[in-house]
Specification:
Elements (H helix, E strand, L loop, with lengths): L3 H28 L2 E7 L4 E3 L3 E10 L4 E9 L6 E8 L3 E10 L5 E8 L2 E10 L1 E3 L5 E5 L17 H7 L2 E4 L17 E5 H4 L4 H12 L3 E5 L3 H5 L2 H7 L1 E10 L3 H7 L11 H5 L1 E9 L2 E7 L2 E9 L2 E6 L14 H8 L18 E2 L1 H8 L9 H25 L6 H24 L4 E11 L5 E12 L3 E7 L4 E5 L13 E6 L2 E8 L3 E12 L4 E9 L2 E8 L7 E6 L2 E5 L8 E7 L12 H7 L1 H9 L15 H6 L8 E2 L5 E2 L2 E2 L7 H5 L3 E8 L14 E12 L1 E3 L2
Parallel strand pairs: 2-9, 5-24, 10-11, 10-12, 12-13, 13-18, 19-34, 20-36, 27-37
Antiparallel strand pairs: 1-3, 3-6, 4-5, 4-7, 7-8, 14-15, 16-17, 17-18, 20-21, 21-26, 22-25, 23-26, 24-25, 27-28, 28-31, 29-30, 29-35, 32-33, 35-36
InterPro entries: Class_I_gatase-like
Keywords: Membrane, Transmembrane, Transmembrane helix
Amino acid sequence: MDAAHPKLTRHFARLAKLGLACLLAGGSLARGEVQFDVFMGFAGKVRQGEWFPVTFEIFNDGPTFDGQVELRPRFGDNPVYRYNVELATNTRKRFTLAVFADTNAGWSAKLKNGRKTVAKDDELKLDSFDSAAVLVGALSGQQAGGPVLPKTRFKSKWDNDRFAPRVAHLQLDTFPDDPIALSGLNALYLNSARAINLRTEQAAALSTWVLGGGHLILAVDQSGDVTSTPWLESLIRGRFGPVQNSAAGQALHRWAETGGYPDVASPDATFAAGQLATAEVRLAKGEALFELDNRPVAAEANRGLGQVSVLGFNPEREPFKSWTNRAWFWARLAKVPAAWFEKEAPQQYGRSSIDGVYGAMLDSRQVSKLPIVWLLLLLAAYLVIIGPVDRIWLNRINKQMLTWLTFPAYVAIFSLLIYFIGYKLRAGQLELNELHIVDVLPGQQEVLRGRSYVSIYSPLNDDYRLGGSFEQGGIRSEYGGAFRGNMASSLRVQRAPGQLEASARVPIWTSRLLCSEWLAPANGGVTAALTKNGRASYELSIKNGLDKAITGAMLLVEGKVTEVELQSPPGGTRTIRVRIGSSPDSDPHIDFESFSHAGRFENAVNARNMVFGDTEGGRIDPSLVNLVACSFPALLGSSNPAGRPIGDFSSSGGLDLSAHAERGGAVLLLLAEDHAPIPSTGLFETKLAQARTLYRIPLEITETE
């Protein structure tokens, strides 16, 4: 009996250990695990002053809970993005947020369940570089295939890091499904073998991005990839011939050389002797880039406000893959300026964002600034009174000890005086001014791609809610440029499926500018058609389906912006004849050089950012001419002493129509006063509010026979 007792004890001890292990394992299974992955930017690369995607992938192996993802800069606290997501048991969720890049290179992400942090990543890093640099995304057929770009050779390493063109190799699974998040790309290379595997949401985002100003470079691996993919076929609108082998020769080399690049190597004999499997390419309303065996094997065309370039061969195969000059070929195809490959970097100092110009148009007119002369007079009067006047007066009454009372009294009196002056100059009522810049994008279902600039004047320190019912979009603060970054603090952006909201802090007696970017169905609105009747003669048809009259119109065609005499009431249809050119009978057009040389916009932006000075100098009239000029920031430039162009203004999100104008694209710009295409972005009540909308409608020109 005694001998059996130790064995029994050991048996129960083993059972207890086994039970404890099962209990712990069961608890672990009950709790489950959450996988939290974050993919920043375009393969970790972003351009400052542009939107970029942040893709989250979450797998919940535990109980169902309502989670909230939070993304914020690692240094500082502005802006903060939050996204509400329901995480059921054994489900995987993947979603993308459009985030605006300023100068922050480090970010932190958390997944919360209530107040509890379930998972986090505090080491998210970005390769953040100047917005003037070129960024090409690539969805290649092979992992190491696709574009390569030449290296810059500037004297300064800092300039090479800032301005070197980059290629971001993207993954199909994490490719964004939000066209606004794609806005940070200059161009996207897509192999047709990968295009057929894009999800419906990804394909829609890519098409909208192209129509809104993006540049798609499509390499056709097999023509069936295009013709059997409806979204791609409707975007490309091309015809392809049979594939046949052609000698590469010097056609591609000569085409790359015409880009004006300084260091293109001598012809590659091995490549020239090689055989390329090519198909003939013809695009509707397009033009050929180069030919092989008298067949066009590459072509490009405008699509909406953007462009498609189509290669009738696969550049990820030999002999193209080993061609020594292929980097210069890609540079030309991606529209990389030749100036980026010279010894001296293009001057970018003092470059401001076009946001400042919109702010000068929208900021409240209730606020006035104290002129610097008056400030100096007040300062001089204060110094005179607390100094010689106080001493002389107290000496005369022989009460020098009273200075302990008079000095605080002077301080209090001048403090009250300054407050009174500030109150008279800056106090007013809550005010909301909105300007909507809306691109009417073509397609089977027209889409509105909008940018809503909102200026809020606040009579007190307060937080104001903004937003709307948008599946895709983002809200950002005013951007001041590479050296100023975000012009205000405290912005909290809240996303949920179908909903976009934000909370912005506005200090007392000041105006704050924000921008909401969104997508919405067109639902009628304005339609237009343009017909060319002869040299420099056009017929423009406009149907106004808005609830307000169109009060002004301008037409971009043949590289000129021409004023159109138009007053169109709601529901009205007009047909107008327009003549383009410099002859006496031509319609007047905008001279962008007058804006550049006068420096009106640049001076207004600088004056607006000053606390004291000329009030009117920081204001710009939101007239049709000024609004249209802001759609071409790259043309509102000047020249440095060497005669090289300098862009005074940058923009984001496809706002700039300059490249479209240089490609010969046509756009109708219409102004509707006291009209908004969406409900007010401001989710608060105010008695003082104004709204204007500038519609930008890309047109395909129909020529009469």
